[in-house]
Specification:
The protein is an alpha/beta fold. It is built from 28 helices and 40 strands. It is flat, with a radius of gyration of 33 Å.
Length: about 950
């Protein structure tokens, strides 16, 4: 029977504190609150802790826990006393707890905002980053419960724990008294603590992917006894690729006396394998996968590639099966690629892993490739592997991941791996969905600052097998946000490969100025027109005539590259007929030698394929002795030309390349493909230059952040979410220096006249009914009313046209200076985060979708670019002789709105409409604002894997 005290300790279990985390070595653990049911686990855990670790925890020999200790460490109120455990396989590997204390150091309750914190990590798991992960989570829990500061007492010899606290990045104080180090630190996240957290996240997640892509030993589970079948095929692919590690074939149906399959050691169970297994490739029916996962977990397998289908892509029952699969694998500390995956490939010479359904190993190269769809993976690998087919042979693939349903490992994890992978210079991704756009955008921004990231993003609904956060943002908005993060957004697989061709080895262009030369006037003109359409600045094409020799091409290309007004060169070539015309190999050599002499500018070739030109270009691009043979299906692909000499030094803006690789000249069969790839490279290079100096979030002396927080707290006491009234909206915006021009209700003509006398003439009369609000084109607004007679006449006109005042909700507002009407919005999207949007007001802009977007917080440089990003921006800068308006004042308004939403996540939606931008200053004529309680966890919270 429970005592009253026991029952009192049983507060509601905070399930949202449960989380899976990736540890420093790439393994996973589960963090969860400790409950009264954990007594036996706690005792067992403590028995496995060394005497030294126990001494460091309790400052004295403490061989075992008493019944009183066990009760204390398992009974929590989840407010003033909280304990968390890190578990693997259901067993504790580490614990952390806090106890709220008062100023006197004794146990206390709120409003006391300090707590003592203590850790204990099993010796076998020390050094894996468990304590650091637990500190992030216990700090988030404490902040949620109103605790603002932690105190910890540590013995000086316990250097590992002292380092956990000091490396966390929090603002802290240290003192030494009575032989004990006392650390006190604030729990408010700082720039440094956030940087530390994200650096740890990157290292851990990259390591977890590395364990999957570079295993020392591999077991294929589900190898058929007869040739054929998925398991047998994958086994053969791994063997034929030359993987240097141990390889095992597993099938519970193997006869007991079977020792080998295709020369590979055979076993009936993973448990029977004597040595370690780093990676298990699972190719058994879905109903048998859980048993295989359990066997792998018990054997210490580090990761799984699950090729088996029959999961979330098959419907609700499969979705539950997928959920259980992820939970089971994470319980053992394993990560999963899949299920329903095509597999993984790593062409590094010391790995040579083809754990996929691709029958041939792609040629090694510098391009990382990620797809979610197996079908798209097949198509891309086929194109990349095709001899003479674009990114083949010479550039090739560094790593390939087809994640299938991406129930666990996703594109975000692979980005973490590619970020500092020395074997990958360019990342290509085909994404059917974005599970966490906010995180993807953050990781993409960091990755794109180091190497190009090219993405094809699905437009339709996410495939059934994908868990995707709901977003209210249109696809075009998400795409725009990705571009602002440095992502090179393309629409097709062809464009994906074309861009990869150019970026893999060509330097980034310094600007948009393009020289065009070639032996076809019409092809040159076509290229010129496409350059203009893509926003480039081409020079008039130089026509070398159809009689041009290889030496003519060499001289012309050399002159163009030497020209300081040229940033890139497009060479157009058609095969010439007649005596003295250059042969294909001769022309390729001429272009190679000229490009090699000036390595700092990109060169592209647009060719019309007739006869042997493509073969010659492909031969120049390949190290294979068979390169001169025609590749089946090579027609229509882009190609590469290899210069005679290797690139002496990499230009600063180009992706870091292998010293052994030569510069490649991409050749395209159509002008539009070459120019589109070049345009993307130009935009990306510009982004790289701007990213080096992203600007700053300015401080404003008149912002009252604390007063706004108090006002928001008081307003939210009314309910979970509410749209503020006009007076409350104006009051809150005033705290951030955003002043809304006063408007007074006018339910009658007399009230309208009184309001006008209060505000002063001239005035505007507006209908604010939902169907007329912000629709001046419908006639619901009357401007420049100079006196009471005009006002009453306008009032009568509005009521005769649109109905009674109760329906129109008319207001009177003082006239603002003439200018350009704009709209400013900010919204907290559940998937993408806080987004600031700007555009011109009016039906035309809405119809065309002419809005620009930036992620919050917005810097001063981003505010400047936001104003200039819309297609109608010329109206702000004196279009057709009009007076330019005060864009600096508009940019300041945008920055203030950004600060408001960034400082107060409770502000979930803001709309300022219209905002009249005049020659001097801006006038906010209307505003709406919505509040809601902030989410328990946001992007500043502790590291977690997606919940399943």
């Amino acid at each position: 029977m429970q005592s009253p005290a026991d029952r009192q300790d049983r507060h509601e279990y905070p399930a949202h504190w449960e989380a899976d985390v990736v540890l420093r070595d790439g393994g996973t653990a589960r963090i969860r609150p400790i409950t009264v049911d954990d007594a036996d686990r706690l005792v067992s855990f403590y028995e496995q802790v060394s005497d030294e670790s126990k001494y460091y925890r309790f400052f004295a020999p403490y061989p075992r826990l008493s019944a009183k200790d066990v009760h204390r460490f398992t009974h929590h109120d989840f407010v003033d006393r909280v304990g968390l455990a890190a578990t693997i396989g259901g067993e504790f590997i580490a614990t952390v707890r806090y106890d709220r204390i008062g100023a006197d150091g004794l146990p206390a309750s709120a409003p006391a905002d300090e707590a003592e914190v203590a850790f204990l990590v099993q010796d076998a798991h020390q050094g894996r980053g468990v304590a650091s992960a637990l500190l992030e989570h216990i700090a988030a829990v404490a902040r949620e419960r109103g605790i603002r500061r932690f105190a910890a007492e540590v013995l000086p010899a316990n250097s590992k724990m002292i380092k956990v606290f000091t490396d966390a990045g929090y603002t802290q104080k240290r003192s030494f008294e009575d032989g004990v180090v006392r650390l006190e630190f604030d729990l408010e996240p700082t720039d440094r603590s956030l940087a530390v957290q994200r650096a740890r996240e990157q290292r851990a997640e990259a390591h977890s992917v590395r364990r999957l892509l570079a295993p020392g030993s591999v077991a294929v589970v589900g190898v058929g006894r007869a040739p054929g079948g998925v398991g047998r095929s994958v086994l053969g692919n791994i063997r034929d690729a030359g993987h240097p590690g141990r390889l095992y074939a597993v099938n519970k149906a193997f006869p007991e006396d079977l020792k080998e399959v295709d020369g590979v050691p055979a076993y009936r169970s993973v448990r029977d394998i004597e040595g370690p297994v780093d990676l298990a490739v699972v190719a058994v029916p879905a109903e048998h996968v859980p048993a295989v996962v359990s066997e792998c977990g018990e054997h210490g397998v580090q990761g799984l590639v699950v090729l088996s289908a029959g999961y979330a892509e098959s419907g609700p029952e499969g979705r539950e099966r997928q959920r259980a699969l992820v939970q089971l694998a994470r319980a053992y500390g394993m990560r999963i690629i899949g299920p329903n995956a095509f597999g993984v490939i790593n062409t590094a010479p010391d790995v040579l892993l083809n754990a996929s359904l691709a029958p041939e190993m792609p040629r090694p190269g510098r391009i990382g490739l990620f797809t979610q769809s197996g079908a798209i993976g097949i198509a891309l690998l086929s194109r990349l592997h095709r001899r003479g087919g674009g990114v083949t042979g010479v550039t090739g693939v560094s790593t390939f991941v087809s994640a299938g349903n991406r129930a666990d490992v996703s594109g975000n994890d692979v980005l973490q791996y590619w970020y500092d992978d020395p074997e990958t210079d360019v990342a290509l991704m085909y994404l059917e969905s974005l599970g966490n756009p906010r995180k993807f955008t953050r990781l993409a921004r960091r990755t794109a600052a180091a190497k190009p990231l090219v993405v094809v993003q699905g437009v339709g609904s996410a495939p059934q097998g994908h868990a995707v956060r709901a977003t209210r943002l249109p696809h075009a908005t998400v795409s725009a946000l990705l571009r602002q993060a440095g992502v090179i957004r393309v629409d097709t697989i062809t464009e994906l490969v074309d861009a990869g061709l150019l970026l893999a080895r060509q330097p980034l262009p310094a600007g948009p100025r393009v020289a065009i030369l070639g032996n076809s006037e019409s092809l040159g003109v076509l290229t010129y027109d496409r350059c203009l359409a893509e926003g480039l600045r081409p020079s008039p094409p130089l026509d070398l005539t159809t009689g041009a020799t290889a030496e003519d091409f060499h001289r012309a290309l050399s002159r163009a590259l030497a020209d300081e007004t040229c940033d890139a060169v497009v060479v157009t070539a058609i095969p010439a007929i007649g005596e003295g015309s250059p042969g294909d190999a001769e022309l390729a050599e001429a272009l190679r030698s000229a490009a090699a002499a000036v390595p700092g500018k990109p060169v592209l070739v647009v060719h019309v394929e007739l006869g042997g030109l493509a073969e010659a270009l492909s031969a120049a691009a390949s190290t294979s002795p068979q390169a001169l043979a025609k590749a089946p299906g090579a027609e229509g692909d882009a190609h590469l030309v290899r210069p005679a000499e290797p690139l002496p030094t990499a230009v600063p803006e180009a992706p870091e390349a292998s010293q052994s690789c030569s510069r490649l000249i991409p050749a395209y069969p159509a002008a539009e493909r070459a120019v589109r790839a070049l345009a993307e490279a130009v935009k990306y290079a510009q982004w790289r230059r701007e990213a080096a100096d992203p600007g700053k979030v300015p401080e404003y002396d008149d912002i009252d952040e604390k007063g706004a927080a108090q006002l928001i707290g008081g307003l939210l006491e009314r309910g979970q979410g509410l749209t503020l009234g006009q007076a409350e909206t104006c009051e809150l915006l005033d705290r951030y220096g955003i002043h809304v021009r006063r408007a007074l209700p006018a339910p009658t003509p007399d009230a309208a006249a009184e309001a006008a006398r209060t505000l002063g003439y001239p005035v505007a009369l507006k209908a604010t009914a939902p169907h007329l609000r912000h629709r001046a084109d419908l006639g619901g607004v009357r401007l420049d009313l100079a006196d009471e007679e005009q006002l009453r006449r306008a009032y009568t006109e509005l009521t005769e046209l649109f109905g009674q005042p109760e329906e129109l909700r008319p207001v009177v507002q003082g006239m603002a200076p003439r200018g350009v009407d704009t709209v400013v919005r900010a919204v907290i999207d559940p998937a993408a985060g806080a987004v600031l949007s700007f555009g011109l007001a009016g039906a035309a802009s809405q119809l065309l979708g002419d809005m620009a977007h930036r992620l919050i917080p917005v810097t001063d440089r981003e505010a400047t670019s936001l104003v200039r990003s819309i297609r109608t921006a010329p109206l702000l800068f004196g279009w057709r002789g009009s007076t330019p308006v005060d864009t600096p004042a508009l940019e300041e308004l945008l920055l203030r709105v950004s600060r408001l939403v960034d400082d107060h996540p409770e502000v979930v939606a803001v709309t300022l409409e219209p905002v009249v931008v005049a020659q001097h200053g801006v006038s906010v004529l209307g505003a709406t604002l919505r509040l809601a309680p902030p989410p328990a966890r946001d992007d500043l919270g502790p590291r977690t894997l997606p919940a399943y």
